[in-house]
Structures
1.
Amino acid sequence: MQRQQAKLIESDHISNQTTNTGSSIDCRCVSLVFSSGTRAVDEVTLSVPAGKIMSLVGPSGCGKTTMLRMIAGLEKPTAGEIQITPSIDGAAGEIGFVFQQPSLLRWRTAIENVTLPLELMSSSATQSQNRSTAAQMLQQVGLADSVNLYPHQLSGGMRMRVSIARALVTQPKVLLLDEPFAALDDTLREQLGGLVLDLWTQRPLTIVMVTHNIAEAVMLSHRIAVMRNGKLAETIDNPMPWPRDDSNRSQAPFSDTYQLVRSVMRGDD
Ligand SMILES: Nc1ncnc2c1ncn2[C@@H]1O[C@H](COP(=O)(O)OP(=O)(O)OP(=O)(O)O)[C@@H](O)[C@H]1O
């Protein structure tokens, strides 16, 4: 297959949006060596334009989560630089993070979990304003009727929806997702992938998602970064058109990009 690095297509879809609410991310020659001596990330250079979606894929242990945690500021690179523009100044709520496990507080209802980041921000909003913002967010993720349920009363998919609502309620410029749907079945996984696309369409922030699922990466991303052994193997700009839905899966750009990502992951020549 011809490996063509198409220039990142400025999709009509996004250029029609009035506001691009994301930050661009530039990682330059970033490395991280843990104190154990493991070189988890080795001179990775990659970028995500503001308001675009990038997936990080690669075999287990290749450094995807470490890369994501460095972008989040949770790990400091041993070498290299990560620049986020407009900058994230460390204020609460500027980066949303969704983990594989929804990690909700079990003694708080769905809405109380979603108000939590708002409570942690030093804003002048009242409790009832925070509740109304959280209720709106829960409505956007399809949980308008479940706001007062506790985590144990929610299904796995619903808990993940709450987790996404909690990550987005502060209107972050960057959303980081670490294998968010890995624990869910295929149908739920596709539904929640569709939800992420819907939410991004309403407010095109910058998204970086770690996933093991090539089809998910291809369906959801503008750009796919393939890592192997801590290094960036290749960055693939996804030629699939926007908007995307299930009908894209049977079309050539989907299968071509899928095969390309797969062969880079396997290290085929
Ligand atoms: N806190 C840590 N201390 C020491 N080594 C670590 C730490 N976190 C990760 N590593 C190591 O760094 C390497 C990369 O790990 P990382 O979790 O980033 O990979 P990954 O691609 O996300 O893997 P997976 O797909 O299995 O989640 C692995 O060898 C891992 O054992």
Note: The CA atoms of residues 178 and 210 lie 5 Å apart.
2.
Amino acid sequence: MKVLVIGAGNMGLTYAQGMSKSKLLKKRNIMILDTSEEKIQELNKISHFDVYEDLKDCVPQADIVFIAVKPYHSEELFKALAPLLNKEQILISIMAGITIDYMKDLTGLDKVVRAMPNLPAQIGKGLTSYIASDAVSKVELILVENLLDTTGKSILVSNENFIDASTGISGSGPAYVFYFMQSMMEAALQMGFSKNISKVLVSETFTGAVELFNQSDYSPNKWMDMVASKGGTTRAALDSMEDNNVNELIKEAAFAAFNRAVELGK
Ligand SMILES: NC(=O)C1=CN([C@@H]2O[C@H](COP(=O)(O)OP(=O)(O)OC[C@H]3O[C@@H](n4cnc5c(N)ncnc54)[C@H](O)[C@@H]3O)[C@@H](O)[C@H]2O)C=CC1
Ligand SMILES: O=C(O)[C@@H]1CCC=N1
């Protein structure tokens, strides 16, 4: 079986590397294509994959075509791909917003999978939600799941709306965490800590809190109560967040990403 990854950026290269560790594929079964000259040179230096610049040299050999270009490049790419594809091939896209119907229309393929990963895939800690068109068989779906799981965990969702919704939570979510980290690091610097110490204080706090959360069934609210003493420092911070409506603003931000994903599909 051969997989062709189109778009060797943050996510495409991550998946190519993840899939190369799959027992289902060997390294030489992964082809990778990019249009950027700079990227091709980089791939030729570091990569153990077969690197391509021209669709016609690799698309016909692929069983699975994995699309990892930006959504605004999709139309042009699908138009170029369409004449080279055959109905047996499975298309997997990780592009935000781009719908299964749109991909089927432009490529002429029936077997299309839409997935939404996130950046921790780079270290095997990704979370990918996915859904497939009806033409993808159960066996093929297991194969797809195996490939997605090479970068972390995956969740099969029951309708395509959940792909846009998970874009607002897990897809874009790492950036919300980094936003919070950035604010806390800026506060630590303002309190007089060095850059290095600020980084350690913040990153260990995030790691420890997430590990605690993962080791029990307690809700985040319950954990907050365990940190906060009555009339103490944490309550002062949490009250400040509540007074400033931070909870609502974070939810609004997640919905902004969700809505943008829906908009990208139109
Ligand atoms: N970065 C992230 O955290 C996440 C990104 N995604 C999705 O993954 C996709 C890729 O995102 P990134 O990897 O961050 O982008 P990127 O900009 O790092 O990589 C895109 C690559 O596609 C190449 N490219 C552009 N047009 C092409 C074409 N016609 N044929 C072949 N290659 C072409 C570019 O040269 C570039 O190397 C996007 O659609 C995005 O919505 C999904 C979840 C998370
Ligand atoms: O920002 C974006 O559009 C992509 C999708 C989810 C994360 N990055």
Note: The CA atoms of residues 199 and 249 lie 25 Å apart.
3.
Amino acid sequence: MIDIIHVSKTYPKQQVKAVDDVSLHIDSGEFFGLLGPNGAGKTTLIRILVTLLLPTSGEVQINNQVLTRKRADLKKKLSIITQENSLRYDMTLDQVMEWQARLYHIPLAVMRERREELLDFCGLTEHRKKTVRKLSGGMKRKLMLCRALLTDPEILILDEPTIGLDPASRRQMWDLLRRLNEKGLTVLMTTHYIEEAQSLCQRVALINKGKVVRLDTPAELISQLGPVAVDEFDGSQTRSSFFPTKEEALAYAESITNKFNMRSTTLEDVFLDIVGSGLEVV
Ligand SMILES: Nc1ncnc2c1ncn2[C@@H]1O[C@H](COP(=O)(O)OP(=O)(O)OP(=O)(O)O)[C@@H](O)[C@H]1O
């Protein structure tokens, strides 16, 4: 499990407070989402989680032990997939995995066995002799997933795992992540695709200006806003209103003259409501 305890980060030169007193507890086996607009502090927070950045104050604990750069035993439990494609284009898939094994001192025999399993799991076995430059965007993402799993982490951290992927590749990645989570892997991810968070995450934290402004299950966040939405177009823009029941939504819809559409509220509505409302902190 991960405990983020009163973590703040100020970038000294710019004096930007990117993360502002964030505390979060993420259980073992949880699928957890960090959502927030551009510049909210999500990437900074996950870089702190994997000790790529040091917090200005506060600490991170893994299984109740303080994480520092020197704690190789704790760092081994975490694996990160960053937003950037960090693969070498001249390497084959097999070579990418071998390279990773050497970096992490994984014995060759162990690497071979895991590589077979992981390439098969991600549906990449038939492409193993190709160089990275010949892979599609979706395949590259899957290879980054295989590489991140080679060290057999307890916690997988993903920064925008499906950015730039087409809908089919995105759903394939969702299935892989779901299956990994079902096997017990703790998953923490950031995403701008709110329907992705709604579909995958057991809990989400909404972050803005470095602070956690909401933390709950997607279903609870939707229920708090009102599970039935009425969109009305007033001739220049669409406005959404939210209601606890269909009856109340219908009563409202009948009282207006604008064209309307009634639908289920989504996590995206919650996100837009919070981000657009000046954000009161919980
Ligand atoms: N290396 C850096 N030096 C100075 N300021 C930075 C640095 N990295 C990020 N920031 C600033 O910190 C704040 C948080 O940025 P961060 O990248 O963590 O946000 P984010 O939520 O991940 O954004 P996005 O969704 O766009 O990836 C922003 O104001 C950003 O400009």
Note: The first strand starts at residue 2 and ends at 11.
